[in-house]
Amino acid sequence: MKPAPFxxxxxxxxxxxxxxxxxxxxxxxxxxxxxxxxxxxxFRLSQPKVLIDLGKLDDLRGIEAGRSGLHIGAMTTHTDxxxxxxxxxxxxxxxxxxxxxxxxxxxxxxxxxxxxxHADPAAELPAVMLVLRAQFGLLSxxxxxxxxxTDFYTGLFTTALEPHELxxxxxIPRPQKRTGYAFAEIARRHGxxxxxGVAGAVTLDRKGRCxxxxxxxxxVGDGPVTAAGASRLMAGKEPTEGxxxxxxxxxxxxxxxxxxxxxxxxxxxRQLARVLVARVIGQAVRRAGGGAA
Amino acid sequence: MQMSSEFVFAGSRExxxxxxxxxxxxxxxxxxxxxxxxxxxxxYAGxxxVSVGPVTAASFAVTVKLTNKVPPESFTMVVxxxxxxxxxxxxxxxxxxxxxPEATLMEYSADLxxxxxxxxxxxxxxxxxxxxxxxxxxxxxxxxxxxxxxxQAGGRAGSGLAAFRGKTxxxxxxxxxxxxxxxxxx
Lengths: 293, 186
Fold this sequence. Notes:
With 293 residues, chain A is of the alpha+beta class. Chain A is 35% helix and 25% strand.
């Protein structure tokens, strides 16, 4: 349970960190809390030659309410996000999801950027970012760029990040009017990897019909999975109980292709998705001010 | 562990069989192949190292034996893979079915024992990694099948690697299945 030898750097400035990352591109891993990276290294399933510890980079930490929405520094810990009144106000879905992430000990050290860049298919935050239509700010020693969460996740543990790039900020637009959010997941014990999880947002029009429905699931594919079929089905319609059931069925049978493991078969995961999607849409509709569900 | 899936190639069964026998195409189709050699009649050994996303697994020694060959329809593979991080052993069955003049369905199923550290910590990811690697390898073969390079690659194989032709290439599916089974973590 000891890692393979590696060089360790603890830069004092973001510029220094970016230079180190460029100098060791492909061989270095940024250390952003270490709650996933260090265990894999200790099992020697991951053997980066260089670790760049981002722990001293205070510029990458913090939560701010800007004109367009919420800005969260990538090195902000899960606990700081969870306890933030600004997050509760401007991103209620994110605030609601935080307690589901692992255990409080892990949330005290793990960071939002670390989790988003790791791209574990069982992670809650990537799915939440898809639903919230977040934008990620990436830095490198050549400049910066913004990538939408929807374009960021490209496969199993794979993102749009280049080896010399660092995820620096997460921007979440302000909540829309007449929009309700909800999150639900099933894990065998609290803090375990969820067997299935669902994040959702429903925006209603003035007549109480669905203007937009956004759903993203975790633990059912290579990364966060968007339920496009269900969104199309519900668009423009009144969110009746029957329609919600139908949407849940579309998610369970068409939008996802879940894996099986010793904890849950494919059929069981589909059933969990069916139940959780109906629950999440129903709650989001009620929170958006709709009555039917 | 049971694994099964299917894939539709855009080509006739004979053409697919031919492709699966072409070492030049195989080398491209298998991500992380460091070495793959014939060590006996229908008996192969090699070394693989692949990575999924940012994580790199240790390298694995792989052996594959072919049995029950019925060209161009089906075969069985007895597979064995060993590395520092874990091991796998078992059997895989592959079947090719004609679906039309330019479509061939490949079905494969495997029954594998998996153990070691990877099994202890990577259980939840086996299926996803398996699907992901198999898709990557098979799509890459399919691209060769539909692309203009196919004929050329076949010609090269015929000259330089004639000895392997019809032997080595068929292990592509076996190796993909082994990789899928072995390469998972956390």
